[in-house]
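name: query_chain
kind: protein
chains: 1
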Amino acid sequence: MVQERDKNTRYISELVMERSSDSERRVPECVHGPALKFRRVDTKTGDVSEFYSCSASRDRKVCPLFHWAEDWNRKQKRGDLSITASECLREKKMRFDDNLGISTLADNSTNAQFTFDDVSINTIIAILTHQIKDITAAVLCIGTPSIHKALLSAGYASVLLDEDERLSGLLPSCHRFNIYNGNWYSGRPDTVNVDFTAIIMDPPFHPKLLPALFQTVNEHFPRSFASSLILFAFPYFNKQDVESACTRLQLSDIRLTYRNHKKYKNGETSPVRLYMTLPPIWKEILIEGHKFCEACEKIVHSTNFHCETCNACTSIAGKRNFKHCSDCGICVKPDAVHCNKCSRCFISSHTCS
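structure:
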């Protein structure tokens, strides 16, 4: 997992997007396809170094592919064009999923697999049926096997792309695909050469890899990505990362929950939200745990609180109602205290700067 680290961590790694501008350069490969390039910054010395790592997992216990970019470039100059293939080591911690009928990976620190619960499945299906009247329309599911299964049962022409090779033997119209580098493990099938009416995605929560994800989807499904309905599951606190990587997406207050996640199985505390390419203004849709705010004219979670001063529902972070701070001019968490010296609110003690 590559993400921003806290102030006590010495190294910060970020994705380097060079696939489109440097497409002729050979890069290392593993069983997951071409590696991604990352830039590592030493926060203490300011030194910058680049490296190649597996696109599917940054944990070298799961996939050991790793090359410093400088060493790899020297190999290319010597004419050594051999591609390093790495054996992927399967994660041992598993959990059986009753909905899919397989054991899903259960290590949060590597490549855990979480599936939507019935509430979230019904929510997404309700939105799709409201927006898409033709149930035979083609729908593309990426990393959402539970949604794919529900769509097939409802009669939709759904296609699933997923990293787990076992799903193709369990679900129809399922193909193994790497969402970060566009690698088709068994070649691109003809069933995906269509225009999809909707795209539903539930990727691993790696915010810094979002540019690679959306670039891959855009390259392989350009017409669908540009004009179809997109439903995207991701935490609300990564709003800036999501909307900058895909400008069509907007954050909603529709909360998503998972049947096999300890923290994200409760709608009142789950930070996962549904990002969409259309505003959630459907008053006639009944979604469990949500309500329609007449003032905002959109669907919000039942625990959200509408602030008359802000003229918006502002309690998007959890079940506690936010309070309005007149000095800050915004709503803040209920236990926040305004500091006149710093001219802002704090939720814990601090040293004025």
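note: Residues 1-7 have pLDDT under 50 and may be disordered.
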